[in-house]
Amino acid sequence: MPQAVAGPEIERLIQLLAKLPGLGPRSARRAALHLVKKRDDLLTPLAAAIATARDAVVECSVCGNIDTVDPCSICTDPRRDPATIIVVEDVSDLWALERADASKGRYHVLGGALSPLDGIGPDDLGIDVLVDRVAGGGVEEVILAVNATVEGQTTAHFIMDRLGDLPAKVTRLAHGVPVGGELDYLDEGTLAAALKRRAPFEG
Questions:
Q1: What CA–CA distance (Å, rounded) separates 172 from 137?
Q2: What is the pLDDT of residues 73-112, one digit of tens each?
Q3: Is the dihedral of CA 124, 127, 145, 187 positive or negative?
Q4: What is the predicted pLDDT for the residue at 119?
Q5: Integer Cα distance of 101 and 48 in angstroms
Q6: How far apart are CA 203 and CA 13, in angstroms?
Q7: Which of 57, 55, 124 has the alpha carbon at shortest distance from 89?
Q8: CA-based end-to-end distance of the chain
Q9: Which long-range contacts (CB under 8 A, 24 or more apart) does 59-66 make?
Q10: Using N-to-C axis directions, what is the helix angle for 8-17 and 25-37, rounded to 10°?
Q11: What's the mean pLDDT when you consider all of the chain?
Q12: Contact status, residue 177 vs residue 183, Cβ threshold 8 Å
């Protein structure tokens, strides 16, 4: 077992940073060293921001988004279309769609995708809450913006079955060639989906 090269406090910081997505042990060590070196400029305000977020951030009881108010600012925004619900797996997906600024609907965060191998079933996700929202009336379209993975598509089919008896239209994101994409660099699944979902050419 390698010997620790820093005090236990710094080692603890490295261990915690290494748990963040995209940071392995080596990257965590570099980040920790940078934070410690820039204590006044980075470490102190970062610690304060984390403490504030811990106390202030809550999960929206309506859609599952995270915010500092409940219901969240998206659910209470009068400019949003309550007739459209965009279903995503995680809050990070919601943020990605917001950056794209492609829709003014409201959201529903599932909290993951169905994955029997990982022990994630329908009761572990916000599917029942989604069904209740749609059954409550006023929803005309549910857009399934789940990931194009086996788990994501399984989740989408399950939700479509659960919403089948309700009047809302259920749609899904198109899969195919991305804007600016070159065919030679795309995987076979993306190309097959693009061909299957081909549309009339609009000049």
A1: 20
A2: 999 999 999 999 999 999 999 998 998 887 899 999 999 9
A3: positive
A4: 92
A5: 31
A6: 56
A7: 124
A8: 64
A9: 62/133, 63/106, 63/107, 63/108, 63/109, 64/91, 64/107, 64/108, 64/109, 64/110, 64/111, 64/126, 64/129, 65/91, 65/94, 65/107, 65/109, 66/91
A10: 120
A11: 89
A12: yes
Q: Phi/psi of residue 124, each to 5°?
A: -90, -5
Element containing residue 143 per DSSP (H, E) = strand 141-144
Tally DSSP H helices, then E strands, for the chain.
7, 6
Res. 1 pLDDT band, cuts 50 70 90: very low
- State how beta strands 105-109 and 66-67 pair: unpaired
The whole-number average pLDDT for the span 105-132 is 94
User: Residue 4 has what pLDDT?
Assistant: 57
Number of residues written out for the chain:
203
What domains are defined for the chain? 79-172 (3.40.1360.10)
DSSP annotation of 170: E
Name the pairing type of β-strands 58-59 and 66-67.
antiparallel
Q: CA-CA distance, 20 to 64, in Å (whole number)?
A: 21
- Whether residue 89 contacts residue 107, with contact meaning beta carbons closer than 8 Å, is answered with no
Tokens of 9: 């406090």
Query: Residue 158: what are its φ and ψ, rounded to 5°?
Result: -65, -45
**What residues form DSSP beta bridges with 171?**
143
